[in-house]
Design a protein that fits this description.
Length: 153
């Protein structure tokens, strides 16, 4: 398999952001996933795709704990403890699959200031505000998140 050339500054930034990422709430995860998939520029997507591909040693489209640890060693020059990687996976692995898939990686690897920019947050708000009322109802959130029409307390 050919080795992917990665911009080291992008890799280091992505690693730093992966380590500090926190998205405990489903709404926050959905918002960030929307922003990452719909709002990122082509160059930023390509840079993060290269980093992901460089980490994904077996090419299965998802990162194992070992691949993340090796990525830190290869691009950050430091060893990450099992505890640190487990903590990272608890924050980043939104679907609890035991792996970090590409979307989870992109969301976590992005700079949180960029994710929270006014432009991105307004676009995400519009995604949730299905009826264009200027406010988001529980039913609109359930619709976007695929929870059906059950009541929310």
């Amino acid at each position: 398999m050919a080795k992917t050339t990665v911009d080291e500054s992008v890799a280091i930034g992505a690693l730093k952001n992966l380590k500090t990422f926190r998205a405990d709430q489903t709404l926050k995860q959905a918002t960030y996933a929307y922003i990452a998939s719909q709002m990122l520029g082509k160059q930023k997507k390509e840079e993060l795709a290269k980093v992901f591909k460089a980490f994904d040693k077996n090419g299965d489209g998802r990162l194992s704990m070992d691949e993340v640890k090796q990525g830190y060693l290869d691009h950050y020059g430091k060893v990450v403890s099992d505890d640190e990687v487990e903590k990272m996976f608890k924050s980043v692995d939104a679907d609890n699959s035991g792996f970090i898939d590409y979307t989870e990686f992109v969301v976590a690897a992005m700079d949180s200031e960029e994710l929270s920019s006014n432009e991105f947050l307004q676009a995400a708000f519009k995604m949730f505000d299905k009826d264009g009322s200027g406010s988001i109802s529980a039913n609109e959130i359930k619709q976007v998140l695929g929870f059906g029409e059950t009541s929310v307390d």
